[in-house]
Design a protein that fits this description.
The chain has 764 residues and is α+β, with helices and mostly antiparallel strands. The chain folds into six domains: 2-95, membrane protein fhac (Ubiquitin-like (UB roll), Roll), CATH 3.10.20.310; 98-183, Ubiquitin-like (UB roll); 189-273, membrane protein fhac (Ubiquitin-like (UB roll), Roll), CATH 3.10.20.310; 279-355, Roll (Ubiquitin-like (UB roll)); 361-431, membrane protein fhac (Ubiquitin-like (UB roll), Roll), CATH 3.10.20.310; 507-760, membrane protein fhac: a member of the omp85/tpsb transporter family (Porin), CATH 2.40.160.50. 17% of the residues lie in helices and 42% in strands. It is built from twelve helices and 33 strands. A 16-stranded antiparallel beta sheet has the order 18-19-20-21-22-23-24-25-26-27-28-29-30-31-32-33, with no helix packed on it. A hairpin with a 4-residue loop joins β29 (683-694) and β30. α1 (2-19) packs antiparallel against α3. The longest helix has 18 residues, at 2-19. This is Outer membrane protein assembly factor BamA. Residues 1-20 form the signal peptide. Residues 25-96, 278-357, 360-432 form the POTRA domain.
């Protein structure tokens, strides 16, 4: 239809032009008539004939073709008239109507909203589901493409034979509504899959790589659509599986589909010939100058001459080589493996053709979205700098560091290639509320009901510094804390922190009062490794000891001064330290109290922590599991020495409660005195297993199992307490809020069956 309009328009145009052959001279004026939506300036931009230029019929004909290619017009004609000083050209245009809306009829199995999302006509739910303004000129090619996409969507969802047509209704001279009329095909489900001809590879392994799946209650697969596209992909997947196991000569027939009862179909996959197993022959690297062939081969210990050929290992080595080049800034490096098969010897040589490319450098770093945060505060957290080398490892680390400042709700760092060896780094930020005044009440298993008032401010004046004043008061607790952290102290990647505090806790058989001051310097020493060195001076007082308290507690009566140094080393590669999805965390902390540091107590503590997070969707299984799993282990060792006979009460390990084994009261999973009250321990071992589901970016539901215990002078693994429960994590400007309910799995006489736990901050 478009070609017909073009031919007619050109005929009219050439008629007008033929009438103008008698006119010779200069163009006096160019006019555009009939445009409504397309600006006149836009049309004139594409017209090469300009006032003051010699008149040319060939240029006018070219202009008409150019304007048609824009796609906005369904008819164009040109009139030439003699003016006072030359020729007047008038371009008469008739615009195509704008598609105002696209609607669907006959679709019962797939909603119109879902179709629009699949077709890209509507924003995603993350963008609030607002419809786009299509504002696209009527284009039959575009509509034909949408028609094919609708048929593909139905085919992928198991509705083969779906027919689609469309109609166009003009609701005004400049607007049109397109209606897609859908005749849905009958639902087709795969109820049975058979594998034939396989001897060396199990049917179970073959089924695991198929895009086509069969109905299975065990796998919670209640719908298994039959898709022609998936069937074609299955043949390639089977071949790939055999190649990963060394069978390079495998032959796979096209799947056979047999209709059974109702909407059930059986699919049969036949392996025509498995062939013989191949082994690796020569391993050759070509084009590598930065790294030797020996260095590159070390990246995969399983690719060696004589070992079973595995295409998956070849592909994995390709990715490792590219990453190795990327670590040096050669992000444009490319690796193409060539497989040379020798059927007689059943060996396969692998030649890795390497194009090293140029090293990438950062041209500009552009920061957007930082309203309150200074540019300098953002730039110092980046592991990238202008004129410096760019690589993906540094990019990932930069994103992680910005997230872990806690000042940004969203961090998006994208490189943009701007030259042969240059990239611009665009940092797009969405700041989080960092100032908070709060007043309220809370409850924990130890302190009971507590009233709280606090004022905190992170990212003070956009510098990254933070400070807080907090007061907690209740029948069994009184806390007053004042702290301040100065980031990048002395313009180095280090933080200087101060804290003043006055605290009182009423425990089961005694009351503890503490007044102290602490200072800590934390320094990033290499990539994701940190060390910290701190000093604490504290006045402790133990009073109100109950008559039935144990002798161990009675010995603590009175006042003492503790002077203590703290040292730690840690590595944190979690993607987000507040609500992690993947990554690891290590920390080793030592504390040493001695009269040398101004105190009168001698003791030491050593605590090791390890946490690992991973997404269950990354597991090689068929079921979609949108959960985050995590594991945490903690071991503690402490003892007194010198003139101190026993470890001070407040520096013992109390296993059980909010931060160790949930479901137990504070200290309940460790040693108890003669009255059954926690007395603490100098040994602890705790394991936490947790699975979480993110309802939103700010809310995570969790289920957990905890195992742990505390002992004196030994570790008794057979005496570890166990619990399980559920909880939630809410990310607030002050950090994560935790609420857990745990049940004891080995409840003993006199113990409660469960406990509630409330706290702030990450659990581990």
């Amino acid at each position: 239809m478009k070609k017909v309009f073009l031919i007619i328009a050109l005929l009219f145009s050439f008629t007008s032009l033929s009438l103008a052959d008698n006119y010779k001279g200069i163009v006096e004026k160019v006019e555009v008539i009939g445009n409504e939506s397309v600006p006149k300036s836009t049309i004139l931009y594409y017209i090469s004939e300009k006032p003051g230029k010699p008149y040319s019929p060939e240029l006018v004909a070219k202009d008409i073709k150019t304007l048609f290619k824009l796609g906005y017009f369904e008819n164009i004609s040109v009139d030439v008239e003699k003016g006072k000083k030359g020729l007047i050209l008038r371009y008469f245009v008739k615009e195509k109507p704008i598609i105002a809306d696209i609607v669907f009829k006959g679709n019962s199995h797939i909603s119109s909203q879902r179709l629009k999302e699949e077709l890209g006509l509507t924003k995603s739910e993350e963008e609030e589901g607002e419809s786009k303004k299509i504002q696209k000129p009527l284009d039959y090619k575009f509509l034909d493409e949408l028609k094919l996409k609708i048929q593909q969507i139905y085919a992928e969802k198991g509705y083969p034979g779906t027919r689609v047509a469309y109609t166009i209704d003009r609701i005004s001279p400049t607007k049109a509504v397109v209606t897609f009329i859908i005749q849905e095909g009958q639902k087709a489900n795969v109820c049975d899959i058979e594998i034939e001809g396989n001897k060396h590879v199990s049917s179970k392994d073959i089924k695991s790589v198929l895009a086509t799946k069969e109905k299975s209650i065990l796998h919670l697969r209640f719908s298994a659509p039959l898709s022609e596209e998936n069937l074609s992909q299955d043949v390639e997947n089977i071949k790939k599986l055999y190649q990963e196991k060394g069978y390079l000569d495998v032959e796979v027939a096209q799947p056979e589909v047999i209709k059974e009862q109702g909407n059930c179909y059986k699919v049969i996959y036949r392996i025509i010939n498995e062939g013989e197993k191949y082994k690796f022959g020569k391993i050759i690297f070509e084009g590598n100058k930065l790294f030797s062939s020996k260095d590159l081969l070390k990246l995969s210990k399983k690719i060696r001459p004589g070992r079973t050929f595995n295409q998956k290992l070849v592909d994995k080595l390709v990715r490792k080589i590219i990453r190795k080049y990327g670590e040096l800034g050669f992000i444009f490096a490319n690796v193409v493996p060539e497989i040379k098969v020798h059927p007689k010897t059943h060996t396969a040589d692998v030649i890795f053709h390497i194009y090293e490319g140029n090293r990438a450098y950062v041209r500009w770093i552009n920061i957007h979205g930082n309203v309150a945060t200074r540019d300098r505060t953002v730039r110092r957290e980046l592991d990238l700098y202008e004129t410096g080398i760019f690589n993906t490892v540094r990019l990932e680390r930069s994103i992680r560091r910005l997230f872990n400042t806690g000042y940004f709700e969203n961090v998006d760092v994208k490189p943009k290639v701007v030259g042969k060896d240059k990239v611009d780094v665009n940092v797009n930020l969405k700041e989080r509320l960092t100032g908070m005044f709060s007043i309220g009440a809370g409850y924990s298993s130890v302190s009971k009901l507590v009233g709280m008032v606090s004022v905190s401010k992170g990212n003070i004046f956009g510098t990254g510094d933070s400070g807080a004043i907090s007061l907690q008061a209740g029948s069994k607790v009184f806390y007053f804390d004042l702290n301040y952290s100065h980031r990048w102290w002395l313009d180095k990647p280090q933080t200087l922190s101060f804290a003043l505090y006055n605290r009182r806790n009423e425990y089961f058989t005694y009351t503890s009062k503490k007044t102290g001051f602490s200072v800590m310097v934390t320094r990033r020493i290499w990539e994701d490794w940190h060390i910290g060195l701190g000093y604490l001076i504290e006045r402790d007082k133990v009073t109100d000891i109950a008559e039935d308290a144990s002798d161990l507690i009675k010995e603590e009566y009175g006042s003492r001064t503790i002077g203590m140094t703290t040292f730690f080393i840690s590595k944190d590669v979690r993607d987000n330290r507040f609500l992690p999805h993947k990554g690891e965390y290590y920390r080793l902390t030592t504390q040493l109290a001695s009269s040398v540091f101004g105190g009168d107590e001698d003791f030491y503590k050593l605590v090791g922590d390890y946490a690992y997070y991973f997404n269950l969707n990354d597991l090689p299984i068929d079921i979609e599991l949108p959960f985050v799993a995590s594991f945490h282990a903690k071991i503690g060792y402490a003892d007194a020495f010198g003139s101190t006979s026993s470890l001070p009460l407040d520096y013992r390990f109390y296993v059980g409660g909010d931060n160790t084994v949930r479901g137990f009261r504070w200290g309940e999973a460790g040693p108890k005195d003669s009255n059954g009250d926690p007395e603490g321990a100098n040994r602890e071992l705790v394991f936490n297993f947790q699975v979480g589901y993110d309802v939103t970016k700010m809310l995570r539901l969790i289920a957990f199992v905890d195992v742990g215990g505390g002992w004196w002078d030994r570790y008794e693994l057979g005496d570890m307490r166990k619990s399980a429960g559920v909880g939630l994590r809410v990310l607030t400007p002050m950090g994560p809020i935790r609420l857990d309910l745990g049940w004891k799995l080995d409840r003993r006489p006199g113990e409660s069956s469960s406990e509630w736990h409330f706290g702030m901050g990450s659990y581990f």
